[in-house]
Specification:
The protein has about 260 residues and is mostly helical. Helix content is about 70%, strand content about 5%. It is globular.
């Protein structure tokens, strides 16, 4: 346990020494929240029961979590492999599983900080409501979502040969899906069918919906109902999709992950 905590502390220190990473993971979602509420106004969304901030705060909290657990984890791990750091770590007494677990635990903690910053700003400055009876469900969604996207990030590292390819793949997959998955654009009903189907397949929309519904004033319930009426918060179906993606990604990553730089395999 002490090895895991020491390595986690080391990974957190490395993150703090990367200003660009700190900005994109923890500050950028907050900037987007301010921009969206200024552009659209913080009025009640037409045809809906929530305000602009009530929608964008949890959506951008999810974006911050995914940026940490998917993009940052994948790119930093691939970069460490290219630099031979992973190969050297494997030659030390430190168990490789502890090293990987510490990297994942560190990004999960960073993701929680990013989510707290966005949600805290939403509550302090834009009056979004926090519902105590849904807090456990919201935290469970964040925990499962963090682990699932960390597994997806490690899968990308396992499938790509270099950090440049890893960065291109993570950006090319995250940003388009964010537009389709109710992160940057509020849901509207005349979206082309193929876009809806695409978003429904991948886990990002399900992650955003499961977390965002915990803050909708028109829903009731604790969130742990498997299926409910139209106005009942039920996050388990969406969370199941996210968990299945995470388990599949973890299996692929465990089978294909390489510790040596591409030129030495």
């Amino acid at each position: 346990m002490s090895l895991l905590l020491d390595q986690t502390r080391h990974q957190l220190l490395l993150f703090c020494r990367r200003p660009a990473a700190v900005f994109f993971v923890t500050i950028m979602p907050l900037i987007l929240l301010v921009l969206f509420t200024e552009i659209f106004g913080n009025e009640q969304v037409e045809g809906e029961t929530y305000t602009t901030a009530q929608f964008y705060s949890p959506a951008l909290a999810v974006f911050g979590v995914v940026t940490a657990c998917y993009t940052y984890l994948a790119v930093s791990t691939a970069t460490a492999r290219d630099q031979g750091i992973l190969k050297r770590v494997r030659g030390t007494p430190l168990p490789p599983s502890i090293y990987i677990a510490a990297r994942i635990l560190a990004v999960a903690l960073i993701a929680m900080v990013s989510a707290v910053i966005v949600m805290g700003a939403g509550m302090l400055f834009y009056g979004i409501q926090l519902y105590a009876d849904r807090l456990a469900a919201a935290l469970l969604v964040l925990a499962v979502g963090s682990c699932a996207f960390a597994a997806l990030g490690m899968m990308v590292v396992a499938l790509c040969r270099s950090s440049e390819t890893t960065q291109a793949v993570t950006n090319a997959t995250l940003l388009p899906l964010a537009f389709l998955s109710n992160i940057f654009i509020r849901p509207f009903h005349d979206l082309p069918a193929w876009m809806t189907i695409t978003a429904d397949i991948f886990p990002l929309k399900h992650f955003a919906v499961a977390f965002g519904n915990a803050f909708r004033p028109d829903l009731s319930g604790s969130g742990f109902a498997w299926r409910g009426a139209e106005n009942v918060y039920a996050m388990l179906p969406d969370l199941t999709n996210v968990a299945v993606w995470g388990i599949a990604a973890a299996i692929i990553a465990a089978q294909l992950f390489a510790w040596d730089p591409a030129g030495e395999r």
